[in-house]
């Protein structure tokens, strides 16, 4: 199964949540059918690209009729393994970390932060949004044998790589990295980097 998943280009997988988001929106609007042309118009991609992406996972929709919104939604959720609650652990409980603990979008989309870690003695033991902050020194005691395999990192750049190495050794398989540094990790560990400064720097190129 893992090999089959790796055969699908990552760029295709990255577009599926965007399709899912739009389908949820049109469902709320009361639409039951949608064509690839309609999806393409709203998402800024071509209808051919959408059909090609979906063809990687089987047949969807009918010629001239479009896609059944509910069925396509269900199929995409299955493909993305979103038919369960995924638990995550947060590392770094500064301003950004606390904002993420407060963010309700995770729980509404099938993700739940169940543990939080920091190395600040003033934060360790403190309860934030119902979660007691633990010392990062104790991470292995509770996490390595748990079912939590997603980590969210918001620590300073200088601490991120060493922490990520520990997470990999502990069995974490996916890391959402907010630290402004590129992590070097085994290929089988999925890393997504979120650095708004890099995005702003790219946007600045187009400004006069």
How many strands, which pairing sense, and closed or not: the largest β-sheet?
7 strands, mixed
Q: What is the CATH T-level topology of the largest domain? A: Rossmann fold
Q: Report the C-alpha radius of gyration, rounded.
A: 20 Å
Strand order of the largest sheet: 5-6-4-3-7-8-9
First-to-last CA distance: 49 Å
Structure overview:
The protein is α/β, with parallel strands linked by helices and 208 residues long. The protein has 2 domains: 2-79, Winged helix-like DNA-binding domain superfamily/Winged helix DNA-binding domain (Arc Repressor Mutant, subunit A, Orthogonal Bundle), CATH 1.10.10.10; 86-194, Rossmann fold. It is built from 10 helices and 9 strands. The chain has helices at 2-6, 10-28, 36-43, 47-55, 69-79, 95-102, 105-108, 139-143, 157-170, 196-204, and strands at 33-34, 67-68, 86-91, 111-118, 127-128, 131-135, 150-153, 174-177, 190-193. A 7-stranded mixed sheet has the order 5-6-4-3-7-8-9, with helices on both faces. Strands 1-2 form a two-stranded antiparallel ribbon. Helix 3 packs across helix 4. The mean pLDDT is 91.
């Amino acid at each position: 199964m893992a090999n089959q998943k790796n055969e699908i280009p990552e760029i295709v997988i990255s577009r599926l949540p965007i399709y899912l988001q739009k389908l949820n929106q049109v469902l709320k609007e009361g639409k039951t059918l949608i064509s690839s042309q309609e999806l393409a118009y709203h998402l800024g991609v071509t209808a051919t690209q959408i059909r090609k992406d979906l063809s990687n996972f089987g047949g969807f929709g009918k010629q001239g009729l479009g896609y059944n919104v509910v069925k396509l939604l269900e199929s995409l959720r299955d493909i993305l393994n979103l038919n369960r609650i995924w638990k995550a652990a947060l590392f770094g409980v500064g301003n950004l970390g606390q904002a993420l603990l407060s963010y309700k979008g995770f729980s509404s989309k099938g993700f739940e932060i169940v543990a939080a870690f920091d190395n600040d003695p003033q934060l360790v033991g403190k309860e934030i949004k119902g979660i007691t902050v633990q010392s990062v020194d104790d991470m292995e005691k509770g996490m390595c044998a748990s079912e939590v395999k997603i980590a969210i990192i918001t620590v300073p750049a200088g601490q991120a790589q060493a922490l990520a190495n520990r997470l990999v050794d502990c069995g974490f398989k996916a890391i959402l990295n907010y630290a402004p540094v590129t992590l070097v990790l085994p290929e089988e560990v999925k890393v997504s980097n979120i650095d708004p400064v890099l995005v702003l720097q790219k946007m600045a190129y187009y400004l006069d």
